[in-house]
Amino acid sequence: MLKEISCHKFKTKKHPSESIYFHPGLNVVLGSEDGANSIGKSTMLLIIDFAFGGSSYVNSDAVTELGDHEIFFTFSFSNQDYRFSRNTKTPNIIHEYTSNNVAKEKRLREYTQWLSQKYKMDYPGVSFRKTISRFFRIYKKGNIDERQPLKITESENNTIAIDVLLCLFNHHYEISYYQKQFKYAQDRITAFRAAQKYDFISSTIRKQKDYEKAQLKLKELYKQKEDLAVANNSVVDTNEVKKANQINELKRSLRDARKELEQKKTDIHLVDLNLQLGVQPTDADLNALLTFFPNANIEKLTKIEEFHHKIQAILKDELLATKTKMKQELLPLQNKVDIIQARIEQIKPSMAFSDEFLTAYTKLDHEITALKNECNNFTQLKNLSKVEKDTKNSLEYQTTVLLHQIEKSINDEMAKISDFISNNKDNAPILRLLKTNSYTFETPRDSGTGTNYKGMLIYDLSILKLTPLPALAHDSLLFPNISDENLRRLLQLYASIKDKQIFIAFDRQDNLGPDISKLLNSHAVIKLGPNDETLFGIQWGKKQ
């Protein structure tokens, strides 16, 4: 629990000590009976929020007027005190003090995680600040909307607000499994469609009727293959067709490889001629090549003037180096020819096909393969969409079940609290968790301002009782619209809670009777008033 807060800027005469001490249960920041403003009530609650890791105090009038300053605070857990300080200039840094008064730095996130653990609020998915801040309803924090009490700000998405409830009631694990399944399904569809977009996956079939047309086309193509085989007077083995096509491809590759090999041999001979003669070879020399290379294109060789000019410009040593390099290049070319020949010999088709047949048959085969892929892609996307829909439905169903459980628990507790506050006279507020992104909160047959504010406070108290939420804070502006009778009972209820902390700012106690005045004073941690009785010894907005 929060045990102590101190600041050297505190100057109220009613509380001469710099330290303010807190206790379990109700802690009252008590204002004057005349309801004086700008005396530090809300500011004190913001400082308490600051100790719990909030940041609203940094932007408060106090910091604007007084400049940056340091707040010291102490928490107590299991009879052990933990002392900290936090400066408004560097709010993301928390200093923790050891028994030797040595300061050790903590990042704000680390500090709030520590608080979450100490308060046994470290449920999966729970953010300490995003949770507790909802229930520290303080002027200028922006979380006072009596019609939408689940929201931390007016602009917050309902999904986030409801998810906080799911986590706070420790249902994160149950939901996260279905959330992960749904997310995985979404990611798969996204990846598939991205592949379609960039043509990694063919996607001309978009509708069921296109798919059905493609199936009819496939039947037609299969029939054409059968007819082609009949025309060839044989039962066509697809594997044999593949072998025949492979051999044709290999033969084409062999021709190219042999041509490249012969060209390299010709180039080597020309280098030899240049080494021997040092001049451009004559027609007689070139014709003599036919003896050694009967396939040589003599006409082409004689036209390669650029090659011969380059040869003549190369020195003898360079020619020798060139010849060595060419011979090294010759061996891989010869190996390539040998490998292709060996592969041709390995493939031994048992059937002979004409080139015309192979061309027609292969074309049909490619068309069938492409169309089958199109159909399979359509089917796969259809299946992925179904999985996405199913996982979404499972997530929504499981979430709905849990939301109904939470809804019932909260409504039952709110009914008890409402009956106590109104002495069984008023309708209790009702929360309806409609979906993961939608809810309603209202008091049946009563939409008055006072009723709405009372309903919000009842909601906060129900969460305080039902969950690990360790504390809540209610500012004085929440109370004026509530009837005196209800307010008296509400304050009594605050005071009855002993195992957690409630921080309230309160004034105008004169109409509530001596018993309530006594209650407020007995739970007051600081009393504030105008002029020199303010928290910092100054009343903002007053002429000095």
3D structure, described in words:
This protein is α/β, with parallel strands linked by helices and 544 residues long. The chain contains 16 helices and 13 strands. It has helices spanning 41-51, 61-66, 108-118, 128-132, 158-168, 172-197, 208-231, 238-277, 283-292, 298-303, 305-313, 316-346, 355-422, 449-466, 484-496, 514-523, and strands at residues 2-6, 19-21, 25-30, 70-77, 80-87, 93-97, 103-107, 136-137, 430-435, 438-442, 471-474, 501-506, 524-527. The protein has a 6-stranded antiparallel sheet, covered by helices on one side. α7 (208-231) packs antiparallel against α13 (355-422) and α13 packs across α15. The longest helix has 68 residues, at 355-422. It is elongated, with a radius of gyration of 44 Å. The two termini are 39 Å apart. The mean pLDDT is 86.
